[in-house]
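A brief tutorial aside. Many learners find it easier to grasp structure tokens once they have seen a single protein encoded end to end. The record that follows does exactly this for NUDIX hydrolase. Read the sequence first, then the structure, and try to relate runs of similar tokens to stretches of the chain.
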Amino acid sequence: MRGDGDGWAVSPGGVRHWGKFGAAGLLLRAPIAAGGVAVLLQHRAPWSHQGGTWALPGGARDSDETAVHAAVREADEEAGIKATDIQVRAERVTAVAPSGWTYITVIADADKPLPVEPNMESVELAWVPEHEVDQRPLHAAFAAAWPDLRVTLARMDTDECPRADIAELAATLPRTIDLGAEFVWLHADPEGPGERAVLVNPPYPAEESDAGESAAVSAAGDSAAEPGVAAAEARVLGIPRSRVFGPEA
């Protein structure tokens, strides 16, 4: 029921967290120039908890809401972001309290930095380049979660892709890829930032599957590696094809 989550969850010792049924926020990314990526941040109103810091649009979950529904609703209420303009990619539990209260971060992409409309909970909203996020005064909980939420930049080497995949990649990228152990911002700008990435197909070697289904391919023997570049500096990121195009039919 709308609004029945508004209120405090109280842990032993009296520590309170907003949201009777937990809380959720939206980490929304969008492409910027030259293969880069920006994150939508909210400059919190002075009267709010840790007012004046920067964090994600978000708030209390209602009893009948999934974390995705709550995060997308809050982004609409606080930033004017519409569900039809974004694509949800993943979700992560980023805080847990002794009371059982959780904060779930929902990760989503937009095709471009969308126009925003702040409500009274914001001083301002801003699309911030990902590498500049931690240069701002962040809400403590968001600052603690950020290292596990930020992306590794990777540029897809389309020369290594089957011809049939190239057109579909052009329509799909750039986007966030969830590899389990890390998030990747995958783009196809050959001059853009990040490690070189290639598509890989199952079955995966066991030791690579256990590490989030990603594969780091050594530059040793790689004719594309520059002479004198150490193998560790020329990592190639293997992206499971299913993480880009979905499971095989």
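Self-check: Confidence is low (pLDDT under 50) at residues 203-232. If you spotted this yourself, you are ready for the next section.
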